[in-house]
Amino acid sequence: MNRIVPWAVAALLAVCPLILDTYWTDVLNNVGLYAILALSLNVILGLAGLFHMGHAAFYAVGAYTTAILNTVYGVPVLWTMPVAGLLAGIFAALVARPIIHLRGDYLLIVTIGMVEIVRIALINNVFGITGGANGIFGIARPMLLGFKLSKPMHFFYLIWILTGVSVFLFRRLELSRFGRALRYIKEDETAAAGSGIDVAGYKLAAFVIGAVWAGMTGTIFAAKMTIISPESFTFWESVVLFTIVILGGSGNILGVLLGAFLLVGLPELFRDFAQYRMLVFGAAMVAMMIFRNGGLLPSRPPRYPKAAALVEGHP
Question: Most buried among 56, 74, 82, 185, by the most CB within 10 A?
Fold first, then answer.
């Protein structure tokens, strides 16, 4: 039964653009983009337990890398994706290294400052290449196997295929030795260090992995919008991503996907009541923290392969 569900969901998603209009197809595109970003944040927040609220900064680095390489140097959009991920990862390694020893609210405050510094630097047209407050226009549409992706339907399939790839890879990472080490660090950092785990190294690696994936997602965003500006990467974007992970279930991939649907897709059903959106949003968060503080789908210890358990000497 469990093997049928993913295929049923994939089949349902495959026909969505054929039965939905352009508006709702684009809404699902946004849900998919936020789902990928939230999955990348889940590595840092959900697995490693690092309170990181500056994820939009990595997203911005990836999107601007694609925009500059495409509009200035004429590099095809999809070719810029690895570079966008690489630069976002390098940026994460540079900024996270001095602060990786911080915990809890201290790290939270520093990462809030990080995303604001990036946004202000973009507004001030740093190095004269970011376009200032107006951003960068005229980003080309991506070409895939000679086919130009220009309609919401085209991006729908690209985004949701990448979402499926993200789910598969992050699930494998969660079950790996690396994922288990991150969970040990999240549960008890002191005990993890005492057992020989390089705590700082693993936490830094979690930051870099999350940033690389967010940077590559920025490429898709830039190609979809064809225009980017600093207002697309504000602190609010980081808040939404942080809330998706916490609301859905920190450390639970299925919960993160559910959180993306609830926070990005569901509000569109109640657009007529948009003025009450923040009120309902705040009340829902307060109620959740009181009655279900582990999220809608709380994280459970993953089932590791028997072979892995035998190697470690468990019965």
Answer: 56
* Three-state SS letters, 64-81: HHHHHHHHHHCCCHHHHH
Pairing of strands 147-148, 143-144: antiparallel
CA nearest to 135, candidates 193, 37, 60, 81: 60
- Taking the CB of residue 260, how many other CB atoms lie within 10 A of it? 28
Distance CA 300, CA 309 (A): 17
| Cβ-contact 260, 35 below 8 angstroms | yes
Residue ranges for the chain with pLDDT beneath 70: 1-2, 272-274, 277, 300-315
Calpha distance 6→159 (Å, rounded): 17
Tokens in use for 59? 């997203």
Place of tokens 């630097």: 121
Tell me the two tokens of residue 50: 């690092």
Exposure string over 139-155, b if 16+ CB within 10 A, otherwise e: bbebeeeeeebeebbbb
CB 288 within 8 A of CB 47: no
Cα–Cα distance for residue pair 100/122, rounded to 1 Å: 25
**pLDDT tens digit string along 29-58?**
999 999 999 999 999 998 998 998 899 999
Number of H helices and number of E strands within the chain? 13, 2
